[in-house]
């Protein structure tokens, strides 16, 4: 039943995407691990701990114009459309607010002789318990300027090229820190469907985990 519901959602959004005619959406699937949690306020309710898996996807339009005139910094801003980031950690969902989108990707090429990549989602949906998610951020820094050929919008793969890899989520004073260990570009047209349906991948992943759990206990 759950699979049928997600399939129906996917089909609906494929239709919407085709009608909207989005030009060149690209999605990148992310996998990582939590390296630290500071939740003295208890808003995460113990759901997330060190070494928990990070799983998700972000989507951008490869034809978005650079809003930064510098030849060393490419700034790509999204305030509407099927773009943003959607993640699952410890059974909690962290996602850009598609209704009030504030999503930035910044590409740095030969900026003070170094390359860099920055992704920030500043307007996000609250957690299921109402906790506000103030920021989702992923930043990469290289030790030289050999990674990117320009400041054009591009996915930062392979990750082995980068010297530092910093992933963070802020929920007020609560912080989740991590590292993204794998990133893969998702073939079209699946990418737009994934980000538009929001919980499609996460829901399927949860269902698969529950099925495996039920099989282990003989349900």
Describe the protein:
- This protein has three helices and ten strands, in the order αββββββββββαα.
- Mean pLDDT is 85; it is low at 1-15 and 17-22.
- The protein has one domain (29-196).
- It is α+β, with helices and mostly antiparallel strands and 219 residues long.
Quick rundown:
By secondary structure, the protein is of the alpha+beta class. It has helices at residues 2-20, 190-197, 200-217, and strands at residues 25-38, 53-61, 73-78, 84-89, 92-95, 103-111, 114-121, 135-141, 164-171, 174-186.
Keywords:
single chain; 219 residues; alpha+beta; ten-stranded antiparallel beta sheet; 3 helices
SS-derived structural category? alpha+beta
What integer is the average pLDDT? 85
How are the strands of the biggest sheet laid out side by side? 3-6-7-8-9-10-1-2-4-5
Shape: globular
Radius of gyration equals: 18 Å
Distance between the termini: 17 Å
Low-confidence stretches: 1-15, 17-22
Give the tally of β-strands.
Answer: 10
Number of domains: 1
Please describe the biggest sheet, giving its number of strands, its sense, and whether it closes into a barrel.
Answer: 10 strands, antiparallel
Tell me the number of helical segments per DSSP (H or I, 4 or more residues long): 3
């Amino acid at each position: 039943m759950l699979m049928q519901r997600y399939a129906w959602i996917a089909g609906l959004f494929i239709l919407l995407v085709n009608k909207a005619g989005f030009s060149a959406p690209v999605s990148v699937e992310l996998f990582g691990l939590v390296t630290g949690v500071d939740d003295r306020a208890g808003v995460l309710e113990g759901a997330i701990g060190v070494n928990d898996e990070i799983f998700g996807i972000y989507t951008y339009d490869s034809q978005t114009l650079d809003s930064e005139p510098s030849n060393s910094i490419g700034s790509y801003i999204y305030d509407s459309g099927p773009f943003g980031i959607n993640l699952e950690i410890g059974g909690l969902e962290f996602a850009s607010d598609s209704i009030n989108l504030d999503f930035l990707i910044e590409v740095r090429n030969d900026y003070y002789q170094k390359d860099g990549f920055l992704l920030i989602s500043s307007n996000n949906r609250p957690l299921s318990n109402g906790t506000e998610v103030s920021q989702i951020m992923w930043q990469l820094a290289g030790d030289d300027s050999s990674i990117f050929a320009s400041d054009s919008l591009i996915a930062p793969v392979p990750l082995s090229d980068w010297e530092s890899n910093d992933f963070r989520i802020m929920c007020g004073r609560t912080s989740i820190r991590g590292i993204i260990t794998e990133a893969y570009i998702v073939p079209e047209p699946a990418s737009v469907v994934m980000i538009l349906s929001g919980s499609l991948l996460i829901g399927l992943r949860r269902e698969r985990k529950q099925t495996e759990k039920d099989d282990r206990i003989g349900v």
